[in-house]
Amino acid sequence: MAGNEINIPPEPDELEVSVFGPGYGESIVLHLCDDNWVIVDSCINPKVNEPAPLFYLNQLNIDLEQCVKQVIATHWHDDHIRGLGKIVKACPNAKFICSGALRNKYFTQLTIIYKDRTLLGSSGIDEFSEVFLALQERAEEWKNPTLAVADRILWKSSDSKSSIYALSPSDAAIIASEIEFEQFIPSAKQPKKRLLPANLNHTAVVLLAMVQDFSILLGSDLQEVGNPVMGWSVIVDSQLRPQEKASFFKIPHHGSENAHHGRVWEEMLMHQPIAALTPFENGGTCLPTKKDIERICLHTNIAYSTAPVGIKHKVKRDRTVEKTILETARNIRKINVSLGQVRLRMKIGQSPKVDIFGDALSLQDTILS
Amino acid sequence: MAFTLQPKYQRHSIVLVGNFNPIIFQPAWFGAEKLIGEKEREEAKIEIIHSDVAIFSLGWGRIEVMPERFLVNTTQEPYYEVIRDLAMGTFTLLHHTPITRMGLNWEIHFQLESEELWHKAGDKLVPKEIWNEVLEKPGMRSLTVNGIRKDGLKGSYNIKVEPSTSVQYGLYININDHFETEDPKNTLGSDEMIGILKEKWSDSHDNSNVVFELLLKGLL
Amino acid sequence: MKTQTAIIIGEEQKMSFGETPNFIRRPESKIQESQVLSYITSNLPEDSLETIARRLREETIPLNGKGTSPRFAISPSYFPVDRFVSLQKWEGVVMKVENGYFIARLHDLTSKGNEEEAEFSCEEISEDESELIVQGAIFYWNIGYHDSHTGQRTRASMIRFRRLPAWRQKEIDDSALEADKLMKSIGWK
User: What's the whole-model pTM score?
Assistant: First the structure.
């Protein structure tokens, strides 16, 4: 078994799930044994200003061109895809996978309309523009994105011992999103402003990765809104999905109540699974809340957060500036303070080992902090 | 990047060369197109509006338009982005206006601590040995150095250094970041140049601060 | 800062690219006296309108057979220079507006890399810009010292919303065509 230092790669027969989160942003790296690496979403490591998965894999000396088999964008929101264009470029032989809901003319048009970062800054959708550019520069066989839709197998290892399934989006979610994306297309004479990701989380891709009898459920940002044809209900009720119960759960949508579905814990997860979440702070919304943490801890006592929640960091500045800030604005706080990593490693048949790095901590401790 | 050596005065101008109709560039037009606020429009100080020249000032900037030239400038650093947006907005609306050249000009007047340092700077810029052979008490009046563009675009990068006429023992540095369209004779509108303005303004601003800092540190 | 301002009618004068143009070059067009007066009086506060008007009439010169015009030059004048010594600058985007406040995500332009959030009262924004406070709107926030031309220094905080050009129909139409091409190139069509 590899040691617990951060820059020692897993052994070939050792699986790994690493969840990264800097306080705003989320990314996951999977090692499904035998140098089969998968990158799910992207966020920026604030210390080095690089996509966190790339920085991590480079630290481990992983050959990105040979070993990264898939790059998956579970949805298009800014906090899940910052730096994804760079990743797609750095991994030219990795299949790019995105939600089937994004294969529509309006979403594609939005990536063109909002690609101008110099004018409108970064909204997430401009990152997709970078992804498409990187894809267009690839060799023919690697150009076309694979579409993730409910109950579709995305990848299988050559020995069939490892696989990845998409469990969403549902057909209804795909149809609904086409109408919704059309509404974001601006009309003539409308003033230009930044596109802020609206709540289209039903387009998110939930993934189930399996390595022999160990399963990993990655919940992305999928929410449960009580709609029987969208969200978690569809997934739980699906007879076409693999019925294996997962031992590791990346909790969806930063632990929020509206992403919680009791039957997921009962029917899709082992008892007391290892769980991880990434916190979220944006526009005054701070997740998970104390209630969320208490709720999650009722389901498992092995839960982690990639970063502390609700701690107000401030940038230190000149006294004159500080004084003037206080007179003008309230509640100024730093976002993306530093990166935390929750890493599970396990040889098949043995017990998993979880290590935490950076600012990651146990979820119980976030209540205390 | 912040400019750490504080200048006494500074100014940024955007100069566009093309084919303009000065009389339309009135505060009322800018206000109607929401390029400036209503109050700004009302309080604009018009100096002249004529078919050959239009000049007016807003609280933070000045616009001068002639048939072959459009200029907007400001002496207040917080409004540097504002004049950029004003130029962009104006010629996105008037996208049929042919614009063939653009100057992003960054100027500072920097006060040196003493006459001795001031002379030292002048001697460093223009060493006097050769001039002492041919002139009595030679002094540098103006120095312009041109460089080629590093970004592959047509144009040049020009820096002028002079003794400041506004600040005692001061240095005046003018950076002219000059751009041209690929084929000026066939440039029919403003899209190409406004695209360059959008893409290059931020780099030009950052570079100007680096240049000011390097020059001043090199001379002091 | 000194600026030499002169209107010279009837004379060609060379100017270098990048300098502030300070004169009218076309002698053929006749400029109305009222416009000239308004130009002059804004720069020469001491003289009365009558004095200036008389001088203009006395100094009328022929323009090479193309009419007449007053010839005048305006002496060097100082234009008031307010300056702002910037200590800190952010670019902000409005994330949410509610109850007279807006929450903004801030990107530090002074020490790049810092990302912050803060809340602002809508009353901090000038009346002229209040209609611009909408979700997705971008603004600049500057903190520093304001030095007036009289030498008065005050601490200042300035928030200014960006006025970006409106979308053109052509831009939207072009984006649809480009999207179509893109979808074909990645096998989505």
Answer: 0.83
